[in-house]
Write a structure and sequence with these properties.
Low-confidence stretches: 268-283
Strand content: 15-25%
Number of domains: 2
Shape: globular
Strand order of the largest sheet: 1-15-13-7-9-11-12-4-14
Number of helices: 6
Mean pLDDT: 93
Largest sheet: 9 strands, mixed
């Protein structure tokens, strides 16, 4: 059984940041400090029938800080449920994020290196197999597969939205048909960048050029994690214990997730993990 003793957690996520330039639909966050929190709590008490309490009546005139967040569940690192791709998977109702089995979202991960792949390129079935062969690894049902593109280095810039390769339909189905239920990427999207898909469609008006990896999920059942980070901080490429549980949003197509890998701490040092967390502000 896996033990949390003598392991270092490595954060593989990007957080929800207000007005992030790397998000097409950035989150909005309204912050309430402790003084404002005291006034709000006093208002809550008044609404509950307790009159006379003012913000200044709280210790030091301070209440509880809080925030109001307006964001789509595809902001920051998130897990897309089968419902995101279509209403059915192979003729059966597609699962929403609250219906995704937790067993799908934890296990050993395999990290495939596509940092060499050209921007806008499509990752093929053959390239998936070549990377697995380079690792001398055969996939097992229940493993998670993460696609490392290096695009997370561009987080915080507009280029993050377009400078990455994406998965193809055949490559996606190939993984799922081997028992993989969760595939992640450190890029903005799982498919190729929007403009590249649009260009390819315009060349021949071929509908298969539009979100092919996503729409593969109408044939095979899987989840994808987008906007991961720090895959380069992992000391190995296979047999990496991870948890990727999504936040439950009832009936939704996605949920925010904070993937965490657990790396054996052989020398007692946590420097690598600390560096990884610093890379995204400990998001």
């Amino acid at each position: 059984m896996f033990s949390f003793a003598n392991v270092t957690p490595v954060d593989l996520s990007i957080g929800i940041e207000p007005d992030a330039v790397s998000e097409p639909w950035p989150a909005q966050v309204e912050y309430f400090d402790h003084e404002a929190g005291a006034d709000l709590l006093a208002s809550n008490l008044a609404a509950a029938g307790v009159d006379g309490v003012e913000g200044e009546d709280f210790p030091d005139g301070q209440g509880l800080a809080w925030e109001e967040v307006t964001a789509i569940p595809h902001t920051g690192t998130h897990l897309d449920a089968p419902w995101h791709y279509g209403p059915e998977v192979d003729g059966e109702p597609a699962k929403t994020v609250d219906e995704v089995p937790l067993e799908w979202c934890c296990g050993d991960a395999v990290v495939l290196d596509f940092t060499w792949k050209e921007v806008g390129g499509e990752i093929t079935l053959e390239e998936i197999d070549e990377q697995l062969a380079a690792l001398d690894h055969e996939l097992s049902a229940g493993e998670l597969v993460f696609i490392e593109t290096g695009a997370d280095d561009l987080w915080g810039t507009p280029e993050y939205l377009s400078a990455f390769p994406g998965m193809g339909a055949a490559a996606t189905k190939h993984l799922v048909e081997q028992g993989i239920k969760v595939v992640g990427t450190d890029a903005y999207g799982f498919d190729k960048p929007f403009a590249e898909m649009g260009r390819r469609w315009a060349d021949g008006e071929d509908e298969s050029e539009l979100w092919p990896a996503h729409f593969a999920g109408r044939e095979v059942e899987y989840c994808q994690i987008e906007k991961m980070a720090n895959l380069n901080a992992l000391p190995r490429r296979t047999n990496v214990p991870v948890v990727t549980f999504p936040v439950v949003v009832e009936g939704a197509s996605a949920g925010w997730v904070r993937p965490v890998a657990f790396v054996e701490d052989e020398d007692g040092s946590t420097a690598d993990a600390d560096h990884a967390n610093d890379a995204t502000g400990g998001a």
